[in-house]
Amino acid sequence: MDYLVLIFSGVVMGLIAAVPIGPVNLICIRRTFAYGPVNGFMSGLGAALGDGVFAAVIGFGLTWVAQLIEGYSVIIEVIGGAMLVYFGVHAFLTPLTARMDEAPKDKGASTLVRAMASTFALTVTNPATLLAFTAMFAGLGGLAGGQASFLAAGFVVAGVVGGSTGWWLALTTLIGLFHTRIDERVVRIINRCSGVAVATFGLVVLGHVFVKVFLRP
Predict the structure, then answer these.
(1) Using an 8 Å Cβ cutoff, are 9 and 140 in contact?
(2) C-alpha to C-alpha distances, 40 to 62, 114, 115, nearest whole angstrom
(3) What is the DSSP letter of 60?
(4) 155 in Cβ contact with 12 (< 8 Å)
(5) Contact in structure between 55 and 129 (CB atoms under 8 Å)
(6) CA of 109: how far to CAs of 36, 38, 201, in Å?
(7) How far apart are CA 148 and CA 158, in angstroms?
(8) What are the φ/ψ torsions at residue 64 (nearest 5 degrees)?
(9) Which ranges constitute the DSSP H helices of the chain?
(10) Handedness of CA 183, 93, 206, 33 (dihedral sign)
């Protein structure tokens, strides 16, 4: 029963990390509309695995990894912000079609792996997620750091990945129902709006780094 509680706590953490609308959500939504639910889900799976990495760092008490991330947080944020700007501009400029038979061939294994890898990279280059999981582990059972056994932490981390993955599966499946029912104009609007939003997220991240490095005493 205790392990069920641990898994449930992890699922809640995974949902808390995945559900709020952010750049990764926008990217997954865009890819689902453009290329179908499989591509969208694989993109979400990359984010879920990224959440799992941060959960493992905290749950298994890997303080040296946490300190490394915090020590290089500025560089990591710059990389993450630049990636968001790139993805946003690329999404805005890439022509898409609403018809599956006219869409780019985007179901190959290598393409799906790239979709997953891109969102994984975006997730792990956001040091704020590490702080969020630190707070969640402390609030949902006091499992942060060395206070939990290796096995207990493993159940929580598995719950995090499972909860986050479940969210992406539900989201992309729901959006996939409308994928073939929208016309090209709507797809173009979604594409451009999501591109602007994702690029804006990236500029905000880069602006935050600039203020932190150059303007704060």
Answers:
(1) yes
(2) 31, 12, 8
(3) T
(4) no
(5) no
(6) 14, 11, 29
(7) 15
(8) -65, -35
(9) 2-18, 23-35, 37-59, 63-71, 73-93, 109-124, 128-139, 150-179, 184-210
(10) positive
Cβ atoms of 83 and 206 within 8 Å: the answer is no
Residue 82: other Cβ atoms inside 10 A: 14
Query: Which residue do the tokens 């979400």 mark?
Result: 44
Q: How far is CA 201 from CA 27, 117, 139, 186, in A?
A: 12, 19, 28, 22
Going residue by residue through the chain, which has 217 residues, state the pLDDT in tens, using 9 for 90 and above: 477 888 888 898 889 888 887 888 888 988 888 788 899 999 999 999 999 998 888 888 776 777 777 777 788 888 888 988 988 888 788 765 544 434 444 455 678 899 999 999 988 888 778 888 888 877 765 444 444 567 778 888 899 999 999 999 999 998 888 766 766 777 778 778 888 988 898 898 888 888 877 776 6
Are the C-beta atoms of residues 60 and 150 closer than 8 Å to each other? yes
What's 126's DSSP letter? -
* Domain range summary for the chain, segments of one domain joined by +: 2-215
